[in-house]
Amino acid sequence: MVTQITRGIKISVLTTFEGTYFKNHKMHFAFSYHISIENHSKDSVQLLARHWEIFDALNDIEVVDGEGVIGKKPVLKPGETHTYSSGCLLCSPFGTMQGHFNMINFTSTRAFKVIVPAFRLSAPFALN
């Protein structure tokens, strides 16, 4: 598990290899990731958007931007936690993801970014 705290918001990420399958005559490697967002600040905040950079071992890079996470824009009061799971496909058995969440602080009305640290996606059989 990787963790990082930005402006009182703690992000923790745990990944799981889900398996392989063929699509369009090509092998794909499926991974899930489980993210916990903990508000350790004294202010209520809301997650508005996400930005992901997904890298695989073949030097392919996919950038994903969108509103919220899995269709939600959670509000976190001080001490609250929001968790969710999602996934991605790679064309190689290992890679990384990193990014950030765009959030707003309700007390100051200021927008800020919370860093999601780089985390590894790796199929167990690909490690030596």
From TrEMBL:
ApaG domain segment(s): 3-128
BP GO terms, sorted: error-free translesion synthesis
One Pfam family matching this protein: DUF525
Protein name according to UniProt: Co2+/Mg2+ efflux protein ApaG
